[in-house]
Design goal:
Blueprint lengths: L9 E6 L7 H13 L4 E5 L4 H4 L9 E3 L27 E4 L5 E4 L2 H10 L4 E6 L1 H12 L3 E6 L15 H22 L2 E6 L6 H9 L4 E3 L7 H13 L5 E6 L11 E3 L7 E2 L2 H13 L3 E5 L11 H19 L5 E6 L2 E6 H4 L11 H8 L7
Parallel strand pairs: 1-2, 1-6, 6-7, 7-14, 8-10, 8-13, 9-10
Antiparallel strand pairs: 2-3, 4-5, 11-12, 14-15
Helix pairs in contact: 1-9, 5-6, 7-8
The structure holds 6-O-phosphono-beta-D-fructofuranose.
The site of 6-O-phosphono-beta-D-fructofuranose has 13 residues, from strand 12.
Length: 371
Amino acid sequence: MPKSGVPIKRIAISTGGGDAPGLNAVIRAVVLAALNRGWECYGIREGFNGLLLPEQFVEGGIVRLTRERVRGITHLGGTIIGTTNRNNPLAYPIKDKDGTIKEIDRTDELVRAFALHHLDALVTVGGDGSMTIAKVLAEKCLRVVGVPKTIDNDLDKTVVTFGFDTAVAFATECLDRLHSTAASHGRVMVVEVMGRYAGWIALNAGVSGSADVILIPEIPYDLHQVVDKIRERDAQSQNFTIVVVAEGATQKGGAVSVREKEIGHAERLGGIGEKVAQELHALTGKETRVVVLGHLLRGGSPTHSDRLTALRFGAAAVRALEEGQSGIMVALDPPNVNYVPLDEATRRMKTVPLDCDTILTARDLGICFGD
Ligand code: F6P
Protein backbone atom coordinates (compact mmCIF):
# COMPACT_ATOMS: atom_id res chain seq x y z
CA MET A 1 0.00 0.00 0.00
CA PRO A 2 1.39 3.44 -0.86
CA LYS A 3 2.64 5.66 1.97
CA SER A 4 0.21 8.40 0.99
CA GLY A 5 -3.30 8.46 -0.46
CA VAL A 6 -5.77 5.67 -1.04
CA PRO A 7 -4.49 2.16 -1.78
CA ILE A 8 -3.83 1.52 -5.46
CA LYS A 9 -6.29 -0.77 -7.23
CA ARG A 10 -6.15 0.37 -10.85
CA ILE A 11 -3.31 2.00 -12.74
CA ALA A 12 -3.03 3.35 -16.25
CA ILE A 13 -0.15 3.41 -18.70
CA SER A 14 0.28 5.78 -21.63
CA THR A 15 2.90 5.99 -24.36
CA GLY A 16 3.46 9.44 -25.90
CA GLY A 17 5.65 11.13 -28.50
CA GLY A 18 7.48 9.37 -31.34
CA ASP A 19 7.55 5.59 -30.90
CA ALA A 20 10.81 3.90 -29.93
CA PRO A 21 11.86 0.24 -29.79
CA GLY A 22 11.25 -1.02 -26.25
CA LEU A 23 7.83 0.57 -25.61
CA ASN A 24 6.09 -2.81 -25.66
CA ALA A 25 8.68 -4.22 -23.24
CA VAL A 26 7.85 -1.40 -20.76
CA ILE A 27 4.13 -2.08 -21.18
CA ARG A 28 4.63 -5.78 -20.46
CA ALA A 29 6.75 -5.11 -17.38
CA VAL A 30 4.28 -2.55 -15.99
CA VAL A 31 1.29 -4.81 -16.60
CA LEU A 32 2.84 -7.95 -15.10
CA ALA A 33 4.29 -6.08 -12.10
CA ALA A 34 0.87 -4.48 -11.49
CA LEU A 35 -1.10 -7.72 -11.89
CA ASN A 36 1.34 -9.50 -9.56
CA ARG A 37 0.43 -6.93 -6.89
CA GLY A 38 -3.28 -7.54 -7.40
CA TRP A 39 -3.78 -4.26 -9.28
CA GLU A 40 -5.63 -3.83 -12.60
CA CYS A 41 -3.85 -2.11 -15.47
CA TYR A 42 -5.38 -0.07 -18.31
CA GLY A 43 -3.72 1.30 -21.43
CA ILE A 44 -4.71 4.79 -22.58
CA ARG A 45 -4.96 4.92 -26.36
CA GLU A 46 -2.56 7.13 -28.35
CA GLY A 47 -0.90 9.21 -25.68
CA PHE A 48 -3.76 10.89 -23.79
CA ASN A 49 -6.18 10.90 -26.74
CA GLY A 50 -7.98 7.92 -25.19
CA LEU A 51 -9.12 10.14 -22.31
CA LEU A 52 -9.46 13.41 -24.21
CA LEU A 53 -11.08 12.04 -27.40
CA PRO A 54 -12.57 8.68 -26.26
CA GLU A 55 -15.28 8.77 -28.95
CA GLN A 56 -12.62 8.25 -31.62
CA PHE A 57 -11.84 4.70 -30.48
CA VAL A 58 -14.06 1.75 -31.39
CA GLU A 59 -12.82 -0.29 -28.41
CA GLY A 60 -13.00 2.70 -26.08
CA GLY A 61 -10.31 5.19 -25.13
CA ILE A 62 -8.85 2.95 -22.46
CA VAL A 63 -8.24 -0.74 -22.79
CA ARG A 64 -7.81 -3.35 -20.05
CA LEU A 65 -4.34 -4.88 -20.24
CA THR A 66 -4.36 -8.52 -19.23
CA ARG A 67 -1.61 -11.13 -19.15
CA GLU A 68 -2.86 -12.43 -22.51
CA ARG A 69 -2.74 -8.95 -24.05
CA VAL A 70 0.94 -8.44 -23.19
CA ARG A 71 2.11 -11.98 -23.99
CA GLY A 72 4.94 -12.21 -26.53
CA ILE A 73 5.40 -8.47 -27.08
CA THR A 74 8.81 -7.78 -25.48
CA HIS A 75 10.63 -8.08 -28.81
CA LEU A 76 8.13 -6.11 -30.89
CA GLY A 77 8.74 -2.55 -32.10
CA GLY A 78 6.02 0.12 -31.79
CA THR A 79 3.44 0.22 -29.01
CA ILE A 80 0.30 -1.90 -28.69
CA ILE A 81 -1.63 1.04 -27.19
CA GLY A 82 -0.59 3.55 -29.85
CA THR A 83 1.11 6.91 -29.46
CA THR A 84 0.97 10.45 -30.81
CA ASN A 85 3.21 13.48 -30.87
CA ARG A 86 0.19 15.75 -31.36
CA ASN A 87 -2.56 16.93 -29.00
CA ASN A 88 -0.30 17.89 -26.08
CA PRO A 89 -2.84 18.39 -23.23
CA LEU A 90 -0.80 21.39 -22.01
CA ALA A 91 -1.12 23.15 -25.38
CA TYR A 92 -4.03 21.38 -27.02
CA PRO A 93 -4.83 22.78 -30.48
CA ILE A 94 -8.46 23.81 -31.05
CA LYS A 95 -10.10 25.66 -33.93
CA ASP A 96 -11.75 28.99 -33.10
CA LYS A 97 -15.05 30.04 -34.73
CA ASP A 98 -13.09 32.17 -37.20
CA GLY A 99 -10.95 29.15 -38.18
CA THR A 100 -7.79 30.22 -36.36
CA ILE A 101 -6.09 27.57 -34.26
CA LYS A 102 -5.24 28.31 -30.63
CA GLU A 103 -3.73 26.17 -27.88
CA ILE A 104 -5.50 25.51 -24.57
CA ASP A 105 -4.57 23.68 -21.36
CA ARG A 106 -6.70 20.52 -20.93
CA THR A 107 -4.82 19.00 -17.98
CA ASP A 108 -7.66 19.70 -15.45
CA GLU A 109 -10.02 17.79 -17.73
CA LEU A 110 -7.47 14.99 -17.94
CA VAL A 111 -7.17 14.73 -14.15
CA ARG A 112 -10.99 14.54 -13.94
CA ALA A 113 -11.01 11.76 -16.56
CA PHE A 114 -8.64 9.70 -14.37
CA ALA A 115 -11.05 10.08 -11.44
CA LEU A 116 -14.03 9.19 -13.65
CA HIS A 117 -12.37 5.93 -14.67
CA HIS A 118 -11.23 5.21 -11.08
CA LEU A 119 -7.60 5.19 -12.19
CA ASP A 120 -5.47 5.65 -9.07
CA ALA A 121 -2.10 6.23 -10.71
CA LEU A 122 -0.34 6.67 -14.04
CA VAL A 123 2.87 5.36 -15.58
CA THR A 124 3.62 7.59 -18.54
CA VAL A 125 6.29 6.62 -21.03
CA GLY A 126 7.71 9.32 -23.26
CA GLY A 127 10.27 11.99 -24.02
CA ASP A 128 10.68 15.54 -22.71
CA GLY A 129 7.15 16.55 -23.76
CA SER A 130 5.54 13.62 -21.93
CA MET A 131 7.69 14.19 -18.84
CA THR A 132 6.62 17.87 -18.73
CA ILE A 133 2.96 16.81 -18.94
CA ALA A 134 3.62 14.24 -16.17
CA LYS A 135 5.13 16.95 -13.96
CA VAL A 136 2.01 19.12 -14.31
CA LEU A 137 -0.32 16.17 -13.66
CA ALA A 138 1.67 15.31 -10.51
CA GLU A 139 1.36 18.95 -9.36
CA LYS A 140 -2.41 18.51 -9.80
CA CYS A 141 -2.24 15.59 -7.36
CA LEU A 142 -2.38 12.69 -9.80
CA ARG A 143 0.03 9.92 -8.78
CA VAL A 144 2.46 9.75 -11.70
CA VAL A 145 5.73 8.03 -12.49
CA GLY A 146 7.53 8.83 -15.75
CA VAL A 147 9.57 6.41 -17.85
CA PRO A 148 12.10 8.05 -20.21
CA LYS A 149 11.93 6.99 -23.85
CA THR A 150 13.41 8.38 -27.04
CA ILE A 151 15.74 7.25 -29.78
CA ASP A 152 17.29 10.75 -29.51
CA ASN A 153 18.74 10.13 -25.99
CA ASP A 154 18.21 13.83 -25.22
CA LEU A 155 16.51 13.42 -21.83
CA ASP A 156 18.52 14.63 -18.88
CA LYS A 157 19.19 12.81 -15.57
CA THR A 158 19.26 9.33 -17.08
CA VAL A 159 22.44 7.84 -18.53
CA VAL A 160 20.42 6.59 -21.47
CA THR A 161 16.85 6.35 -22.75
CA PHE A 162 15.64 3.09 -24.24
CA GLY A 163 15.28 3.09 -28.03
CA PHE A 164 18.62 4.83 -28.48
CA ASP A 165 20.71 1.65 -28.59
CA THR A 166 18.50 0.09 -31.29
CA ALA A 167 18.60 3.27 -33.39
CA VAL A 168 22.40 3.47 -33.14
CA ALA A 169 22.82 -0.25 -33.92
CA PHE A 170 20.71 0.09 -37.07
CA ALA A 171 22.43 3.30 -38.21
CA THR A 172 25.81 1.63 -37.68
CA GLU A 173 24.77 -1.34 -39.80
CA CYS A 174 23.66 1.05 -42.55
CA LEU A 175 27.04 2.81 -42.47
CA ASP A 176 28.80 -0.56 -42.73
CA ARG A 177 26.74 -1.33 -45.83
CA LEU A 178 27.39 2.06 -47.41
CA HIS A 179 31.19 1.74 -47.26
CA SER A 180 31.48 -0.79 -50.08
CA THR A 181 29.19 1.05 -52.50
CA ALA A 182 30.83 4.41 -51.68
CA ALA A 183 34.29 2.91 -52.26
CA SER A 184 33.27 1.12 -55.47
CA HIS A 185 32.00 4.37 -57.04
CA GLY A 186 34.43 6.79 -55.39
CA ARG A 187 31.49 8.82 -54.07
CA VAL A 188 30.68 11.03 -51.15
CA MET A 189 27.78 9.44 -49.23
CA VAL A 190 25.84 11.77 -46.94
CA VAL A 191 23.76 9.95 -44.34
CA GLU A 192 21.13 11.97 -42.44
CA VAL A 193 19.99 10.58 -39.10
CA MET A 194 17.32 11.70 -36.62
CA GLY A 195 18.07 13.08 -33.17
CA ARG A 196 16.33 16.49 -33.04
CA TYR A 197 18.63 19.11 -31.48
CA ALA A 198 21.12 16.57 -30.08
CA GLY A 199 23.83 14.69 -31.93
CA TRP A 200 23.89 11.45 -29.94
CA ILE A 201 22.73 9.12 -32.75
CA ALA A 202 25.03 10.72 -35.35
CA LEU A 203 28.03 10.66 -33.01
CA ASN A 204 27.68 7.13 -31.69
CA ALA A 205 26.75 5.57 -35.02
CA GLY A 206 29.32 7.67 -36.89
CA VAL A 207 32.19 6.58 -34.67
CA SER A 208 31.05 2.92 -34.55
CA GLY A 209 30.42 2.83 -38.30
CA SER A 210 33.75 4.45 -39.27
CA ALA A 211 32.38 7.67 -40.73
CA ASP A 212 34.96 10.18 -41.97
CA VAL A 213 32.89 13.24 -41.11
CA ILE A 214 30.23 13.70 -38.39
CA LEU A 215 28.14 16.88 -38.27
CA ILE A 216 26.16 17.42 -35.06
CA PRO A 217 24.07 20.31 -33.68
CA GLU A 218 26.52 20.86 -30.82
CA ILE A 219 29.34 21.75 -33.27
CA PRO A 220 28.21 24.17 -36.02
CA TYR A 221 30.16 23.24 -39.14
CA ASP A 222 32.15 25.01 -41.82
CA LEU A 223 31.79 23.01 -45.03
CA HIS A 224 35.28 24.04 -46.20
CA GLN A 225 36.68 21.88 -43.39
CA VAL A 226 34.71 18.95 -44.77
CA VAL A 227 36.01 19.67 -48.29
CA ASP A 228 39.58 19.62 -46.91
CA LYS A 229 38.87 16.22 -45.35
CA ILE A 230 37.53 14.86 -48.68
CA ARG A 231 40.61 16.19 -50.52
CA GLU A 232 42.94 14.75 -47.87
CA ARG A 233 41.32 11.34 -48.34
CA ASP A 234 41.54 11.60 -52.13
CA ALA A 235 45.25 12.40 -51.80
CA GLN A 236 45.62 9.21 -49.75
CA SER A 237 43.88 7.18 -52.52
CA GLN A 238 40.74 6.92 -50.40
CA ASN A 239 38.49 8.40 -53.05
CA PHE A 240 35.26 8.03 -51.09
CA THR A 241 33.97 9.75 -47.97
CA ILE A 242 31.17 8.88 -45.55
CA VAL A 243 29.52 11.93 -43.97
CA VAL A 244 26.98 11.45 -41.14
CA VAL A 245 24.73 14.47 -40.57
CA ALA A 246 22.39 14.84 -37.61
CA GLU A 247 19.03 16.31 -38.69
CA GLY A 248 19.58 19.23 -36.27
CA ALA A 249 23.10 20.10 -37.50
CA THR A 250 23.67 23.68 -38.63
CA GLN A 251 26.27 25.56 -40.58
CA LYS A 252 28.22 28.15 -38.54
CA GLY A 253 25.86 31.12 -38.24
CA GLY A 254 23.08 29.17 -40.00
CA ALA A 255 19.66 27.92 -38.91
CA VAL A 256 18.30 24.44 -38.39
CA SER A 257 16.66 22.85 -41.44
CA VAL A 258 12.89 22.59 -40.82
CA ARG A 259 10.48 20.58 -42.99
CA GLU A 260 7.24 21.60 -41.31
CA LYS A 261 5.94 23.70 -38.43
CA GLU A 262 2.32 23.66 -37.36
CA ILE A 263 0.53 24.73 -34.18
CA GLY A 264 0.24 21.95 -31.60
CA HIS A 265 3.17 20.02 -33.03
CA ALA A 266 6.93 20.34 -32.55
CA GLU A 267 8.77 21.57 -35.64
CA ARG A 268 9.68 18.68 -37.94
CA LEU A 269 13.36 18.72 -38.85
CA GLY A 270 14.89 17.36 -42.03
CA GLY A 271 16.56 18.27 -45.29
CA ILE A 272 20.04 19.07 -44.02
CA GLY A 273 21.48 15.91 -45.68
CA GLU A 274 20.32 17.05 -49.13
CA LYS A 275 21.69 20.55 -48.52
CA VAL A 276 25.11 19.28 -47.41
CA ALA A 277 25.29 16.85 -50.34
CA GLN A 278 24.46 19.54 -52.92
CA GLU A 279 26.99 21.95 -51.47
CA LEU A 280 29.71 19.30 -51.27
CA HIS A 281 29.09 18.36 -54.89
CA ALA A 282 29.33 22.02 -55.92
CA LEU A 283 32.55 22.51 -53.94
CA THR A 284 34.37 19.27 -54.87
CA GLY A 285 32.79 18.18 -58.17
CA LYS A 286 32.56 14.66 -56.73
CA GLU A 287 29.56 12.43 -57.24
CA THR A 288 27.46 12.67 -54.09
CA ARG A 289 24.49 10.65 -52.85
CA VAL A 290 22.16 11.15 -49.87
CA VAL A 291 20.59 8.49 -47.65
CA VAL A 292 18.00 9.62 -45.11
CA LEU A 293 17.54 6.94 -42.46
CA GLY A 294 14.57 8.75 -40.88
CA HIS A 295 11.86 6.58 -39.36
CA LEU A 296 13.78 3.36 -40.10
CA LEU A 297 15.67 4.24 -36.91
CA ARG A 298 12.45 3.96 -34.90
CA GLY A 299 11.34 0.59 -36.27
CA GLY A 300 12.31 -3.02 -35.71
CA SER A 301 12.98 -5.16 -32.73
CA PRO A 302 14.70 -3.58 -29.71
CA THR A 303 18.27 -4.70 -29.03
CA HIS A 304 18.80 -6.82 -25.91
CA SER A 305 20.10 -3.72 -24.14
CA ASP A 306 16.96 -1.66 -24.93
CA ARG A 307 14.70 -4.57 -23.96
CA LEU A 308 16.39 -4.99 -20.63
CA THR A 309 16.41 -1.25 -19.89
CA ALA A 310 12.73 -1.01 -20.84
CA LEU A 311 11.75 -4.01 -18.70
CA ARG A 312 13.77 -2.65 -15.76
CA PHE A 313 12.22 0.82 -16.17
CA GLY A 314 8.67 -0.59 -16.28
CA ALA A 315 9.12 -2.76 -13.19
CA ALA A 316 10.86 0.09 -11.31
CA ALA A 317 7.97 2.44 -12.13
CA VAL A 318 5.48 0.05 -10.49
CA ARG A 319 7.75 -0.41 -7.45
CA ALA A 320 7.89 3.38 -7.12
CA LEU A 321 4.09 3.63 -7.14
CA GLU A 322 3.88 0.87 -4.53
CA GLU A 323 6.33 2.83 -2.35
CA GLY A 324 4.02 5.85 -2.58
CA GLN A 325 6.28 7.89 -4.85
CA SER A 326 4.94 10.37 -7.40
CA GLY A 327 6.25 13.23 -9.55
CA ILE A 328 9.38 11.26 -10.37
CA MET A 329 11.01 9.68 -13.41
CA VAL A 330 12.85 6.37 -13.38
CA ALA A 331 16.42 6.79 -14.60
CA LEU A 332 19.35 4.58 -15.48
CA ASP A 333 22.25 5.18 -13.11
CA PRO A 334 24.38 2.05 -13.65
CA PRO A 335 24.31 -0.44 -12.11
CA ASN A 336 20.99 0.76 -10.69
CA VAL A 337 17.69 2.22 -11.79
CA ASN A 338 17.08 5.33 -9.70
CA TYR A 339 14.30 7.88 -9.33
CA VAL A 340 14.72 11.60 -10.09
CA PRO A 341 12.16 14.38 -9.53
CA LEU A 342 10.38 15.25 -12.81
CA ASP A 343 11.17 18.85 -12.10
CA GLU A 344 14.92 18.10 -12.37
CA ALA A 345 14.55 15.75 -15.33
CA THR A 346 12.73 18.36 -17.44
CA ARG A 347 14.95 21.36 -16.70
CA ARG A 348 17.25 21.02 -19.72
CA MET A 349 17.84 19.01 -22.85
CA LYS A 350 20.79 16.59 -22.70
CA THR A 351 23.08 17.42 -25.58
CA VAL A 352 26.50 15.97 -26.37
CA PRO A 353 29.19 17.54 -24.13
CA LEU A 354 32.00 18.78 -26.37
CA ASP A 355 34.66 17.28 -24.11
CA CYS A 356 33.03 13.85 -23.79
CA ASP A 357 35.15 10.79 -24.35
CA THR A 358 33.38 9.78 -27.59
CA ILE A 359 34.15 13.17 -29.20
CA LEU A 360 37.78 12.91 -28.04
CA THR A 361 37.96 9.36 -29.42
CA ALA A 362 36.54 10.50 -32.75
CA ARG A 363 39.08 13.30 -32.99
CA ASP A 364 41.91 10.86 -32.15
CA LEU A 365 40.66 8.64 -34.98
CA GLY A 366 40.89 11.59 -37.37
CA ILE A 367 37.14 12.04 -37.79
CA CYS A 368 36.24 15.56 -38.94
CA PHE A 369 33.45 17.52 -37.19
CA GLY A 370 33.59 20.39 -39.67
CA ASP A 371 35.11 22.75 -37.09
O1 F6P B 1 11.95 12.29 -31.08
C1 F6P B 1 12.01 11.20 -31.93
C2 F6P B 1 12.02 11.62 -33.36
O2 F6P B 1 12.14 10.44 -34.12
C3 F6P B 1 13.06 12.66 -33.73
O3 F6P B 1 14.35 12.10 -33.88
C4 F6P B 1 12.49 13.24 -35.00
O4 F6P B 1 12.92 14.55 -35.22
C5 F6P B 1 11.01 13.21 -34.72
O5 F6P B 1 10.79 12.22 -33.73
C6 F6P B 1 10.17 12.89 -35.94
O6 F6P B 1 8.82 12.90 -35.59
P1 F6P B 1 7.60 12.49 -36.54
O7 F6P B 1 7.12 11.17 -36.03
O8 F6P B 1 6.61 13.57 -36.34
O9 F6P B 1 8.11 12.38 -37.95
